[in-house]
Design a protein that fits this description.
The chain is of the alpha+beta class. The protein folds into 2 domains: 39 residues, no CATH class; 186 residues, Sortase, Chain: A. 30% of the residues lie in helices and 22% in strands.
Length: 289
């Protein structure tokens, strides 16, 4: 060994070469009780082992904690995501169904009243009582589509301009259109216990209160005085004498004799109310012609 190397070893330092060569001699140079190699403290083997074990355990525990936290968060979020997707799909489906119903009834107006409809793709607003004078309905064309047809109703100043049907119960046409297609818009229909020719003292006519203003929704806020019902036997005109909100189980719905003292024939137009589900809004008219 050269004199320089021997002198270096005698100084208390261990060279990198010796460390690599496997020289495990304990350095004789100590600072504050810690051995050093080239000025850097050397950790004791036992302490190094403990530190390494601690460091190895810490990340695993933290990773496990993060995993379970993310899993719980995922379990909480998934139901909300599923509900959101379901709601968006339901809204989209409902919108498509409403559009299908509007298109269907627009086409029926063109079929039944070809000389009256200028743009069959739009629901017309009837401006006054004279708007339907001098026109006729093609009942045969309507019967070819649905034999349940019993009439046609027009409420002046609104978009209420629909065929009237009568089913075997009061449930079917709540969810089916005139063409018998399942749709939440349904149809305007006469109570199944009434005479189909409007000869009863009291005839009930039902229609949905649609959020987009279709079917019987325009009855809310309508302040007109007359409406007209067309039938294959003739045309009946009614003058409004009452507007009121009644319970859905009101005796009004089981009354088929005239509700008036003068025994005049009455038609009640009934629809839902959004804010009071247990009630119905009705417009009642008495036959004048």
């Amino acid at each position: 060994m050269s004199r320089e190397r021997e002198a270096y070893r005698e100084s208390g330092y261990v060279s990198d070469m010796d460390a690599v060569a496997g020289n495990r001699a304990t350095p004789r140079h100590v600072i504050h009780g810690k051995p050093v190699i080239q000025g850097r403290p050397v950790a004791r083997p036992q302490k190094i082992t403990r530190v390494r074990k601690a460091r190895a355990r810490a990340p695993k525990g933290k990773a496990k904690q993060v995993f379970f936290s993310n899993r719980i968060l995922l379990l909480l979020v998934l139901p909300f995501l599923a509900m959101l997707l379901w709601s968006l799909n339901a809204i989209n489906t409902q919108g498509n169904e409403y559009q299908e119903a509007r298109s269907e009834y627009a086409a029926l107006r063109e079929l039944a009243w070809p000389e009256r409809i200028e743009n069959p793709q739009e629901t017309p607003t009837v401006p006054d009582e004279d708007a339907y004078e001098g026109t006729g309905i093609d009942w045969d064309a309507l019967r070819a589509i649905n034999t349940d047809i019993v009439g046609w109703i027009i409420v002046p100043g609104t978009t209420i301009d629909y065929p009237l049907v009568q089913g075997r119960n009061n449930e079917w046409y709540l969810h089916h259109t005139f063409r018998r297609e399942r749709n939440p818009a349904g149809a305007i229909f006469v109570d199944y216990l009434n005479a189909p020719n409007f000869s009863d003292g009291h005839t009930l006519v039902y229609g949905h209160n649609m959020q987009r203003g279709n079917m019987f929704a325009p009855l809310h806020g309508w302040d007109g005085t007359r409406f007209r019902i067309y039938t294959p036997e003739g045309v009946f005109e009614y003058e409004v004498f009452a507007r009121q909100t009644v319970p859905r189980n009101s005796q009004l719905y089981s009354m088929f004799d005239s509700p008036r003292d003068d025994e005049a024939q009455v038609v009640t137009l009934s629809t839902c109310t959004f804010r009071r589900p247990a009630y119905r809004f009705v417009v009642q008219g008495v036959l004048i012609a």
